Amino acid sequence: MIILDATSFIGKGLHRECYIHPDDSNQCVKVVVHGDLSESKREQKYYKFLQKKNIRWDIVPRFHGLVETDKGSGAVFDLIRDFNGEVSKTLEYYLSSEQLDKKEIPGICEAIATFKRELHSQAIITMTLSPKNIMYKKTAGNEGCLVLIDNIGNSDFIPVCTYITYLAKKKIARKLLRFEQTVLKMCAHNKALQKGLKT
Ligand SMILES: Nc1ncnc2c1ncn2[C@@H]1O[C@H](COP(=O)(O)OP(=O)(O)OP(=O)(O)O)[C@@H](O)[C@H]1O
Ligand SMILES: [Mg+2]
């Protein structure tokens, strides 16, 4: 069993807490703190599908299985870090920032465009696409790429879209349209960034 202590805490959402793995600083462990394990089970099932499909793991972190922790069952994933070793920040952090350096804008716009293209072309299904569930992984000074860390998979009662790529892509296109609106709203205070996103 591994111990998850406060010093390795990274962040939390509504259901899970995320910690740096005590045995591997490039992995993280997620434990459920609110609700049951049904969402995690659905996520793991979809991850099995992605593993079989042999996707590139550039826009989604790898899943490394389950581990027992002092906070219950933990799901192990790649931890997203910037080029300088710092844990990456969410896209929400950058979009809503009041002091975003103008030099960051082209890199963020480029990363969003690439992410949209890749999600669609690799046909990776998501539930609501939210900037708080996407990390902006900086790969150099003012460059980076987006990695989706949550809400991956299909929550349909009968998830037939998962297995029919044509239907999967139609679903993803709809999610991406809503995502674009969310992104523009989130940076409404930053006209330069909005302009960059629209061009
Ligand atoms: N692979 C990762 N690399 C780096 N940070 C991560 C990773 N996964 C999660 N995090 C951090 O931990 C936080 C919580 O993780 P996550 O979004 O999976 O929890 P959640 O409770 O399922 O969220 P939600 O409220 O959207 O359901 C994220 O917002 C992010 O800051
Ligand atoms: Mg989340």
How would you characterize the overall build of this protein?
The structure is a single chain. With 199 residues, the chain is α+β, with helices and mostly antiparallel strands. The chain folds into 2 domains: 6-78, Phosphorylase Kinase, domain 1, CATH 3.30.200; 89-198, Transferase(Phosphotransferase), domain 1, CATH 1.10.510. The chain is 35% helix and 24% strand. The chain is built from 5 helices and 8 strands. The strands form 2 sheets. Strands 1-2-3-5-4 form a 5-stranded antiparallel β-sheet, with helices on one face. Strands 6-7-8 form a 3-stranded antiparallel β-sheet. A hairpin with a 2-residue loop joins β2 and β3 (24-32). α3 (105-121) packs antiparallel against α4 and α3 (105-121) runs parallel beside α5. The protein is globular and about 50 Å long. The N and C termini lie far apart (50 Å). The model has no long low-confidence stretch (mean pLDDT 97). The structure holds adenosine-5'-triphosphate and magnesium ion. Magnesium ion (MG) is lined by residues 13, 132-133, 150. Magnesium ion is lined by residues 13, 132-133, 150.
